[in-house]
Every structure is written in structure tokens, then in C-alpha cells.
Amino acid sequence: MTHCPPFRLALWLLLLFIAAACVDPEDTILRGTVNVVVVDGTVTNLAEPQLIRINRSKADPYTGRFGTLPITKATVEVIEDSTRIIVCHETLDGTYQLPSDFKGQPGHIYQLRFTLGDGTRYVSNQQVMQPVPPVDKVTARFNPKGLFPPLNNFYTAGHDIFVDFNDPRETRNYYRWDWKLWEK
Amino acid sequence: MKNNLFLSLLLALFVSVAHAQTLYTLSGTVRDSATQQPIARAAIVLDYEKLTTGTYTDEQGNYRIEARSGQHIVVVRSLGFVPFRTRVYLRENRTLDVRLPSVSSQLEEVIITSKGYDRNVRQPLLGVSQINIAMLKKMPAALGEVDVLRSLQMLPGVTSVGEAANGVNIRGGTTDQTLILMDDMPIFNPTHMFGLFSVFPPDAVAGLDLYKGNVPARYGGRAASVLDISLRNPDLNQFRMSGGVSFMSNKLTVETPIVKGKLALLVSGRGAFNDFLLRAVSPRFDNIRAKFGDGAAKLFWRVNDHNTVTAMGYYSQDLFQTNLLGSLANVNAVNTQYAQQTANGMVRWFHEFTPKINLQTTALVAQYIPRILSTEDSTNNKVTLKQSLLQRQIKSNLNYQLENQKIEVGISAIQYRLNPGELIPGRSLAVNYQKTPPENALELALHVEDEISLSDKLAVSAGLRYSHFLNLGPSVVRRYTNGEIPDATTVVDSVVYGAGQVSKQYGGLEPRIGLRYALTPNSSIKIGYNLMRQYLQVITNTTTPLPTARWKTSDAHIQPQVSQLWSAGYFRNSKNNIFEMSAEVYWRSTQHILDYKPGADFLLQPYPETQLLSGRSKAYGLEVMLSKKKGELTGWVNYTYARTLNQVNQGVDFQQQINGGNWYRANYDRPHTLNASLILNQGRTHTFSFNFAYSTGRPYTAPEGFIRYQGRTYPYYDERNAYRLPDYHRLDFAWNIYNPSLKNRRWQGHWTFTVYNLYGRRNVYSIFYRTEGQATNPYRLSIFGAPIPSLAYNFEFK
Known about the structure:
heterodimer, A: 5-stranded antiparallel β-sheet, 5-stranded antiparallel β-sheet, 1 helix, B: 5% helix
């Protein structure tokens, strides 16, 4: 917990607004009315398992605490170019996998469709799979002051990871990077 | 020590009791100092003990009071007169005749009127407030900086989102719906340091008019209101210098005749460079930089009895750096600075044909350049995002004053040139140069207005303005599939316009009508109607627009905002215009307001229409104000009930609606506001003043809960502005000491001691969420979370 600085030093008078500004923890009780279906899935053009996870993020109506429940026994399909329907099968609770021979192809249009056990149907927008420029180089560098604000108010060291690739200048692209941590 | 004092007080009491056996008579007459008329029912109070030793004068102004021998404090008061205080040493029966100066012969303190003492009642305009700069300087100011915008918020109908607000919200208008003019030059960013201080040089300001109801037809271009600030004309005959030092800034104003009686110059500058003190105190503030400066120069030339020329320049600069502000997207920055500068210039020629007819022609240039600079961590190179806004304007007004009416005709032409965003990489290897296409536009207007007094009771102000707006090329205008959400996938085709080609135009009439009907010589009712069109606006997705928020002209997709205001009010002056009472109600409806889509990003966006939704807004309210304009105690109390609601419902898709297409609260919707501002004038040397402000907390958006996505917890937002911050209230105090030496010297000093937020309430400015490990925790931010004392020294040299 932070405190406003004490009303003491004459010098403090000069400290004006920045010192007087203060941040306190807030104990709002959120309404706890959340009840949403969260779909977390990607279709890539890589030879890797193509997974779609569906959960229900929901607040307990009495305590307001939040939790998630995997949604099982849903019918999940990916539609390619509005014609080809690819059916997913549930591997773990709430995790649906596309057939192992399936991978996306840049330039094609994909859409997700699923039906829950109670018959509720959901359809996503159509999305064109964009070509991705290849990664030229990945490097990492130790940075003793990499984290701001410090983790647990103490740790600042981290590794800066640099990814070099050529972003086509004329189009406005967005990138998402996933990473996995391996330890030897 | 305390006990000793108490003891000596007790002793003193006993002593006085012991000697207080003899009673003497104090008698005399109380008269009006100007007319020498006796004042009846004037109160005479000895030693502040009204019950035991008070009395009143009779019809002839005579009084008689018995008191013990010894020293007494005598106070003589009567309503409408300046009280009289003195010490009397009674050793025998004494006569004390008193002359009281009448308050109505004093100058008005609170709200000055340039057009007569009872303008409140007489003028056919509603919702016009004026603040006298002398009054402004007596009001408590945060950190000792006299501040126009902050003081304005003590008036009814003027609010903001909080202490760090980049502008004011007037009668339910957004900050950019108020036209802010300083000697005719538009001010696009009225504040320094993210809203903490306003940019107007306090020593050069002569006065300000706020039009929140009826806006005269000569003003146009903004939808809600006009704040017209005028700077002082330099004195043609006398050299004057004034200045001051406060913890925040240093300032100096010099006015000097160059050719006596003909040509004079005023220069006023202010600078705040004290941020190094922060770093000296704690390493916590190492990364903070906060500097600002502003200056104005005004040259006044009286060519002859019929012509005057005024030339003026204004410059303001700001630099602000803190770790609290995010860096530019995709730049790994060690620090990020916000810098902005304003450079304005104006020339005005005033020509008097006859004493009744005059012509005023003004040419001006206003330029505003905000920048965000992020210093890259590896190279120390600064990546800059720059925006610029240039307005060039020429306007001319012909005024004709008749016996019972005042006629005004005018024309105006404005040229806008906007650079909405330019990313300048410097030596950066990771950032590409990018530029958003510039915008060019013209805004033309003509107006005519007649203020006419039809009878003793009825007066009308009828104005009509026609404005026309042309968006000019070079530009590329996309056309989207009808009924579809405009984005990159629904583009049908694009039209390319060459330089100077009109890509879109809008125009329309703007009637402005005000009507006054006098019920009695001291009271009146007024009604008004106003229509205003706005072609240049700020698009933003923050609670208060950042200084770097993007300005946007109306174009093929973004329609001009049109606002209509109906208002009615009752006005009453009493006790020789010492008290002024007003009650006003209003209803305002605005079309084509802009709100942002969820997750909108305007930065370097060439097609902002893909990020915006258009809707409508309604605002209504009641404002009641009581002010006392003269006397020892001056000030006002006002209460406002006001609501502002928006509705965005462009289509059935959830992406085309906000809050399901229902009415939702604007983020400055604060239903109840109570303000009190009081000034106690104690003789010529001291004034004490208090400000009290209360208002309902502003709405904010809180997450409804949390969701789990990609193994992390994220806050989930649903409805906008569904929650409210805690109520806001604050008391400020200021003590002004004028000329402590009491000698009439050429150099006069003046001290101001202020405590802002006297009882140290941590008023919540915002509630925000911070992700800490797996959890997301809420925090409340207070801008002034403690009492802020400050001391300022000002001087004047004549």
C-alpha cells in the first residue's frame, strides 16, 4: 500500500502535485454478472496440432468470485472458403482438435462454427489467412533493467528477445508472437 | 505555555471585572458618507457581544450605549453599507459619529458588467457569465497559480472530469465543443501539464466572457459554448511592471508606452522549470520532467481618433515526461515525453466611421503542434509522433449602434490544414517513417445580429449565421458497401481528389434568438434558442482528450455536429444590485456526436471512420445561483442539476452500437454540483477566500468480471460508464496580503498563501486495473491527495 507523503518538509511544498498524487488499492466489489463463452483457437499453416479451446468464464452469483469451466460435448467445425467443412473432435474437456492432416493455407478464408450441448449456435466472421514473412533471426540479450515496474517490486532483470523479419511496408499488419520456455 | 496563557487570560478577566464598576455612555449618529442622510436600524456592537451590548440606531440615526470603562471594539453595520470598525477607550462619556460609505458606490467584485450595472436582468441573453480578473486573483488557486479554467468550474454548468482534465465540459458539451478564444485566436489545448494549469497568462488577462446559453452570432465553429478571453491593452501613458514568484512558476509582465498616447507594448511571460527540485528530493521522481512556459506580446497603436491597430503574438510550450505514460506503440522506450507548442499571431484593425458605426477586421494564424517522443532503449534515439494543426482566418465585423438597437454584420473565412499524424523514426532501425494524409478544409461564414429593445419590458436579440464547410483534396475517399460496417473488407471503391478539389461540403443556417421580458425593474424572465454547427473536432478514446489527441475535420464519412439548445431563466437583482439571483433551465440535443468503437486505434489511421461510431447526445439541467456582488463579504453559491446522455445505434450489429444502442451516461455526467466561493475583504490589506466544491462522481467503466484466455486472466468489459467514482468534494482557502508595508510606494508587494484541498480529501480521479502476476487488481488514483499549501509573491511597479 502506498501512502501520500507526510506533510512535513518545507521542501515537500515544492513537490506539489506529483508527490500529492497518490495511488490507493480500491476495494470495489465487481458486480459478478459475467457469464461469457470464451473461444481460444488458432488455425495456422504449420504442421502442428490445430486446437480450439472453449470455456465458460463465469462469476459465482453469491461470492462474485470468478472461475472457468471447459465446455464439453460441443460440435465444432471450421469452414474453409465457405464450402469445405472440417469437423473437430474433443481430445480433452473443452479442447477440440482439427484433423491431424489439416493445416491452413494462406489466401484462403476460414470461419469457425460451433453448437453447444443446449443447442446454442455460434458463428465467427470470415477471416482471410494472411501470408507471414519468414523470421530471419531470433536473438536474446540479458537486460538487468528490463522490467518496469519491477516484478514483486524488486526484480527488474529479464531477457530482451529480438525477432528480425521484414514487414511489408505497404500493408498494415498485426503480429502475435507465441513462445514456449524450455529449460535444459 | 498554554496553561500560562490561560492563566493570564483569567487574570485579565478578573482585573477587568475588578475595574468595571463605572459605566459610561457612548453615543453618536450614523450617516451615509455620501448623502449625509442618517441611517436607521444600523447595528452597533461592542466587543462582538451582540446579545448583551448590541443596539440599533433610531430613525434619526442616533444611538446610545452604556459600557464599562476600558478599551472596547466598536463595529457599526448596516445592510448596503461598508461596515465600520474602531477601538474606543472609555474613560468618560463619549460621542462617536460614524459615516458609512454605501456599498453600491463600490465597484462590483464578483461579476463585472461592461454594459451596465444590471446586465443580469436587462440583457436579452441567457447563460452569460463574466469573471472579473481581480476577483479571480483573490480566489484560492492550486499551487498559487491563478487559473482561469479552474475558477470557471466554480460557476454553474461548468464541470470537468477531474483535476487533470484537458478542458472543461459546459452544459453537457465535450471539451472540444467549447470554442476557446484569446483575443480572437483559437486555443486548441487550454492546459499545461495534462490539465493541471491553464495556458492563459494570468497577469495579462483583462477579463473573460463565457457564453453557455445564447451565443452571439459572431461566434461559430463549436457546438456547445464559447469562452472568450481578452488580454489587457497596454497603457498608452504609463509604464507598469508586475510579476510574481510561486513554487510552480515565475512570471513577469511589462507594459510600456513607446510613443506616449500613441503606441504601447505589453509583454507577459511565465515559466515553470522547477522540476529539478523533484529529482533532488527522491529518486522516485528521477524520470519525471515537467516544464512549461507561455508568453504573450500585445502592441496597441492608436493611429488617430478613428483608427486603432492591435497586433498580438502568443506562444506556449510544454514538456512532460513520466513513467505513467505509455510509450509509442512498437517502440522499446526508456522514457516517453509529451511535448506541445502553440504559436498564434493576430492583427486587428478598428475603424470608427462615426461614433455610432465602426468596423473591426482581424487576420490571424493559429498553430498547434503536439508531439510524443519515445527514446529507444538501445540507441538513445528519439522516435517522434507529430501532429499539427494550422488555422488561418480573416474576419470582419460592422457594428451599428442606434438609440434602441445594436446591429452587427460580419463575415469570416477560415482555412484549416491538418497533419493528423507523422511517425518520424529518427535513426531508428526498427521503425518505418509513416504519414497520415493531410487534411485541408475551408469554413466560411456570414452573420447578422440585431439586439433591439422593443419596449421598456421587452428586448430581443435575434441573430442568424450561415456557415459553409468544404473539405478539400488532395485526398482519397473510400466508399463502403451500404449498410455494412466500414472496414477494409467492405470497401467498394476509392475516389481520388486532386489538390483544391472539393471532396465533401456541408452548410446550414444557425439561428440564435434571445428574448427578455422585464417583470419589474429588478427582475426579468428570458428565453433563448441556439443552433450551432461544428466542423472540426477531437477524436479520442480517453476520458479526457490527451494533448496529443487527434483533431479531425468533417469529411465524407464524418458529419458535422449540430447542436440545438433551448433555455429559459428567471433573473432578479435586489438591494440596489448587491444581490443577484438567477435560475436557468436548459435542454440541449446534439446530432452526429462521435464515440469510439471498442478497441479503437486512431494513431496514424488513414481512415478514422473505421474506428468511430456516430450518435446523438442530450443534455438537460437546472442551474440556480445566488451572488453577492459588493460589500465586505462577496461571492456566490450555486447548485446545478445536470445530466448528459449519449446514444449510439448505427445498426443492428453489436459493433455498430454502444451499450446495446441504449442511452448511456457521458463520462462527464455529474448530476449534482454545489459550488460556493466566498471572499472576505478585510480592509485594504487582507482578503480571505474560500472555495467549496461538491459534485457527484463521474461515471467510469469497470470490468464486469474476468475471463480466462490463453492461460491468462483478463478483465472483461461490457457496458460503458456503468459505474460511478465516489463523490468529489474539496475546500480551498486563500489569504491575500496586499502591500504589507501600508505605504503608498511605486513598488507594491502582495503575498498569497493558499491551501488547496484544505481537509486533504483523496478525491478519486480514476480507478484503474493493474495486472500483477496472475491477478488483476483495482487501484484508485488521486491527483491532489493531500492538502497542498503554497505561497506566492506578486509585485506591481508603476
